[in-house]
Automatic annotation (TrEMBL):
<dbReference type="GO" id="GO:0016987">
    <property type="term" value="F:sigma factor activity"/>
</dbReference>
<dbReference type="InterPro" id="IPR000394">
    <property type="entry name" value="RNA_pol_sigma_54"/>
</dbReference>
<feature type="domain" description="HTH lacI-type">
    <location>
        <begin position="5"/>
        <end position="59"/>
    </location>
</feature>
<dbReference type="InterPro" id="IPR010982">
    <property type="entry name" value="Lambda_DNA-bd_dom_sf"/>
</dbReference>
<protein>
    <submittedName>
        <fullName>Transcriptional regulator, LacI family</fullName>
    </submittedName>
</protein>
<dbReference type="InterPro" id="IPR000843">
    <property type="entry name" value="HTH_LacI"/>
</dbReference>
<dbReference type="GO" id="GO:0001216">
    <property type="term" value="F:DNA-binding transcription activator activity"/>
</dbReference>
<keyword id="KW-0804">Transcription</keyword>
<dbReference type="GO" id="GO:0000976">
    <property type="term" value="F:transcription cis-regulatory region binding"/>
</dbReference>
<dbReference type="InterPro" id="IPR028082">
    <property type="entry name" value="Peripla_BP_I"/>
</dbReference>
<keyword id="KW-0238">DNA-binding</keyword>
<dbReference type="Pfam" id="PF00532">
    <property type="entry name" value="Peripla_BP_1"/>
</dbReference>
<keyword id="KW-0805">Transcription regulation</keyword>
<dbReference type="Pfam" id="PF00356">
    <property type="entry name" value="LacI"/>
</dbReference>
<dbReference type="InterPro" id="IPR001761">
    <property type="entry name" value="Peripla_BP/Lac1_sug-bd_dom"/>
</dbReference>
């Protein structure tokens, strides 16, 4: 029967006291570097894992981090979770993942459940429906460390990690213009989200700088963030109903991109095939449309950075009053061909 190695086993093998081994494993300054090195090397060689239950009882910590995202199946969030795990596990933390499905009610239930499970901190990307932040402010005010990533809330004094949404949107729109498209519509996420405002600004800036008028009638919002295909269908049918149909569409998110392509296939037949560019970290879209140009976010890195900042908050021995707003760059994957001349 397998029996995991303990601190007492390490102490016996190295002829040290259990307290010395314990302090060495905790990276205490009280232990000389040579002893610390011996202990850590022996522990790693023999696959020592600290007992999270014993540690939580001793230190009043659960060594767990709560993560709230809209949907794990979303390529962006699955990649971000990989980044979160890479840092969390390295630092001895487990993660507990919850999905809001872009529902504010579900988000409230999730965050309360995680707090009741005594997680040491929470990483959150807001749901498309969240407009009231009392549930987050209450827990933050009670001392629970919280870090936002991707979809952030500026009203809370904490770390925030996002991508350069404005620049990414501007690159996508400029790419469509460079390929010869002139009437570019925008399928946007819920209007109150931080990412929606930033991506709208980039879209508008690209149009303006190229001498095009920003026409509000070419912009449609999906308040449920693409979780309702019916809502996306309605938005795409609106574009199809226009007398002068858009020759290109800039789409604001992964889920909306899939919904948009699904709706176009369903309603447009072969008579209407606009160029599509949008934010997406998914390769599945190639199955829908091989010439889909995409803005890719550094999802894995975003997860890593957010988790590192959260652990710093959790483990800080003093109150933290200075916070970082980290903005990561995006990449344009070009697949759209130039618009055919009539």
């Amino acid at each position: 029967m397998f029996k995991p190695i303990t601190i007492k086993d390490i102490a016996l093998a190295l002829d040290l006291s259990a307290s010395t081994v314990s302090r060495a494993l905790s990276d205490s300054y009280e232990i000389n570097p040579e002893t610390k090195k011996r202990v850590l090397e022996y522990a790693e060689k023999n696959n020592y894992k600290r007992n999270p239950i014993a540690l939580s009882l001793k230190q009043r910590k659960s060594y767990s981090i709560g993560v709230i995202v809209c949907e794990v199946a979303n390529s962006f969030f699955s990649q971000a979770i990989d980044g979160i795990e890479s840092i969390a596990y390295k630092n001895g933390y487990n993660i507990v993942i919850s999905q809001s499905h872009d529902s504010s009610d579900q988000e409230i239930m999730n965050i309360q459940h995680l707090a009741n499970r005594s997680v040491d901190g929470i990483l959150i990307s807001l749901s498309a429906e969240t407009t009231n932040f009392d549930h987050i402010q209450k827990l933050h005010g009670a001392g629970l460390p919280i870090v936002f990533f991707d979809r952030i809330y500026d009203g809370l004094a904490t770390h925030k990690v996002s991508s350069d949404n404005k620049k990414g949107a501007k690159m996508a729109t400029q790419h469509l213009i460079n390929k010869g498209y002139r009437k570019i519509a925008h399928l946007a996420n819920a209007p109150h989200l931080s990412i929606t405002k930033e991506r709208l600004a980039g879209y508008q800036e690209a149009l303006t700088e190229n001498g095009f008028k920003v026409d509000p009638s070419n912009i449609t919002y999906c308040h449920h963030g693409g979780s309702s295909q019916k809502e996306v269908d309605t938005a795409v049918q609106y574009f199809l109903s226009m007398k002068d149909k858009p020759d290109a569409i800039f789409v604001a998110s992964d889920r909306l991109s899939i919904g948009c392509l699904t709706a176009l296939k369903k309603f447009s037949g072969n008579n209407y095939d606009p160029a599509i560019a949008g934010f997406s970290n998914s390769d599945v879209l190639d199955l829908f449309k091989s010439d889909f140009s995409s803005i890719r976010q550094p999802a894995f890195e975003m997860g890593r950075v957010a988790t590192d900042l959260l652990i710093q908050l959790i483990e800080s021995k003093y109150p933290v009053h200075e916070y970082q707003s980290v903005v990561l760059g995006t990449e344009l994957i070009e697949r759209i061909k130039s618009k055919p001349r009539n």
